[in-house]
Amino acid sequence: QVQLVESGGGLVQAGGSLRLSCTVPGSIFSISPMAWYRQVPGNERELVARITSDGSTYYADSVKGRFTISRDNARKTASLQMNSLTPEDTAVYYCHNELYASWGQGTQVTVSS
Questions:
Q1: Which of 2, 27, 88, 104 could cross-link with 100 by S-S, CB 3.0 to 4.6 Å?
Q2: What pLDDT was estimated at residue 21?
């Protein structure tokens, strides 16, 4: 199974910003939709944002207008720019490649009030 490599995340104060990145090995990145999910202990993993191969995007209502998903096909990287963070955004964030059906290792995002 292909292992996606995530970077970014960490601790930030409310109102701050963080950027997550996810690199996908292999040759199919450019044709694969990518997505970011997040999970809080005791809850199901929820879809945060998704981007198709042609750049069409979807956002959960809770992050619309604050988060931006993007992709760089040359670098085989998908990113999630998170602005105006609130404590409710605290979670482990996972990237997901739909064609490989693979996940990143997860990165902790903690927003303090």
A1: 2
A2: 98
